[in-house]
Design a protein that fits this description.
- With 329 residues, the protein is α+β, with helices and mostly antiparallel strands.
- The protein has two domains: 135 residues, Porin; 164 residues, Ferritin (Up-down Bundle).
- The chain is built from five helices and 13 strands.
- The strands form three sheets. The protein has an eight-stranded antiparallel beta barrel.
- A hairpin with a 2-residue loop joins strand 6 and strand 7.
- The longest helix has 30 residues.
- The site of one fe (ii) ion (FE2) has 7 residues, from helix 2 and helix 3.
Length: 329
């Protein structure tokens, strides 16, 4: 599996499209309610690990006498942010341009903004306004900077161990963080957890392949991959620091069901080819950035690439299985 996985520096960023409903109570020369929609695109360079970033947004709302439209740029840091841009409002008095300035507080699907509009130019219009804007938003991740988002499926680097509902299962860990090494240590502990989960994932794959009558060399390759993942977990823990330990392995034995050939195929493509391939790329990038660890990282990258190849072979085995009744494009 891949270290870098979702954890490497370059892999964490997230871009999302955020449609939402916007309801505003505003007061100036008039007092009224604006109702409408907002659409924004936001980018967070560190993803969910450190929620900060920037975006662009457009708003369109209706009120009793006309509309209010705005386009703005936004920056956010944790739950707080600021929108700044341009707005135009129409009313019975005509159209008036304005400066849109709105500090906001956002948690989950909900955001609250203190929305101010400063009228630009003279003449009649709605004048300066201040309002309370309530937003209901639904962020849709569209693309990690280097990641892949598939609806309903979390593609992680490396081959995850999945529970009955497809959820990734990871062993717990105690970390050996010390002051000043917190970030790097935590990252490698997370990596070790993913690698350790891959050990079980490949052991189960070997068992499943055997049960479905796969050729012995394919089963043996899966067992060899499990051994390599065990070594990856050990190396990752080493990078994390001397006190890092993996605790309990994930429990899955009692709940496991034998996957069908189609499930085997889907896992091979999504977790194997995509996940392991992504892990190989991320590890190779990491090796270039970390000269002191380059040899170990490059070796892991090569092994992850071979796991992706193994997964392609598993997919081919299923696709050519005589009992397969589902179409393979
Ligand atoms: Fe690995
Ligand atoms: Fe792997």
């Amino acid at each position: 599996m891949g270290p870098a996985q979702a954890r490497a520096d370059e892999d964490r960023s997230l871009t999302a499209i955020v449609p939402g409903y916007l309801h505003t109570w505003s007061t100036g020369r008039r007092t009224w309610t604006d109702r409408g929609a907002e659409l924004s695109v936001v980018h967070a360079p560190y993803g969910l690990d450190r929620w900060q970033g920037f975006g662009l947004l457009g708003q369109l709302q209706r009120h009793d006498e006309g509309i209010r439209a705005a386009v703005a740029a936004e920056v956010f840091y944790s739950a707080f942010g600021l929108e700044a841009g341009w707005a135009v409002r129409t009313s019975a008095d005509g159209a008036q341009h304005g400066l849109h300035l709105a500090p906001f507080f956002s948690v989950g699907f909900l955001s609250v903004a203190l929305r101010t509009t400063f009228a630009l130019g003279s003449g009649s219009g709605t004048g300066n306004e201040v309002g309370l804007a309530l937003g209901l938003k639904l962020p849709i991740p569209v693309q990690g900077w280097r990641g892949i988002y598939l609806p309903g499926r979390n593609v992680v680097g490396g081959r995850p161990l999945r529970g009955p509902a497809g959820e990734p299962l990871l062993p717990s860990a105690c970390d050996g963080r010390r002051r000043g090494e917190a970030h790097d240590s935590r990252r490698w502990i997370e990596q070790a957890r993913l690698e350790q989960a891959s050990v079980d994932s490949f052991l189960w794959l070997a068992d499943d392949l055997d049960a479905h009558g796969a050729p012995a060399p394919l089963v043996e390759r899966a067992l060899a991959a499990a051994a390599e993942e065990r070594e990856h977990a050990r190396v990752s823990l080493g990078f994390a620091g001397r006190d890092a330990r993996l605790a309990a392995a994930p429990r899955r034995r009692g709940t496991r069901r034998r996957p069908t050939l189609q499930q085997l195929y889907e896992e091979a493509v999504l977790d194997g080819v995509l996940g392991e391939g992504r892990a190989a790329i991320a590890l190779a990038n990491e090796a270039r950035r970390q000269p002191l660890r380059a040899a170990a990282l490059a070796r892991m990258a090569a092994e992850e690439a071979s796991h992706a190849q193994l997964s392609a072979a598993v997919a081919a085995f299923v696709a050519t299985h005589p009992s397969v009744g589902f179409p393979v494009a």
